[in-house]
Amino acid sequence: MKNSIKLLLLAGFFMAFGCKQTDEAPAQTTSENTTPTEATGQSGVKDETSSPNIVQTAIGSKDHTTLVTAVKAADLVDALSNAGPFTVFAPTNAAFDKLPKGTVEDLLKPENKEKLANILGYHTYVGALKTEYMQDGQQFDMVYGGKVTITKKGDKTFVNGSEIVASIPTSNGIIHVIGDVLLPKAK
Known about the structure:
Elements: H1 2-18, H2 54-59, H3 65-73, H4 77-81, E1 86-91, H5 93-97, H6 103-107, H7 113-121, E2 124-126, E3 139-141, E4 147-153, E5 156-159, E6 162-170, E7 173-178
């Protein structure tokens, strides 16, 4: 009986909205001399009233310009703009500065896009991890495939030994600001 009601509601929905007539003129087709507008992903959605997502929040941070540049170079803007939820352990610019000279510049090269995406994926967890629910010794599987380990020392929380210095809720997850770049172990 419940399935029949669901089926009827679904059919009614399609009838009401699927067959709607409109008085608008048909969409114009593009001529041979013009190119269609390039499709954009979730990052192309403009919304001035909702809370910003992870990428929008990072773009607004003067301390995460290197991370934003890396996310763009790895073509991960749309992925991290999707509904999520995601947890991103976000290294600051100072964290990237701790890497050996030339490392960031090398990773930003087009030929290192996959390596960069793997490193950024090692900073990303699918799900929202709040520090108050993290336990000492707990491990989480990251997007890259490696695991990170949480440690607690008093009221401080660390991921792979890097202290979480701030947590910022976003519309599609949470950003935990850290002072180190997490490097995945070689597979």
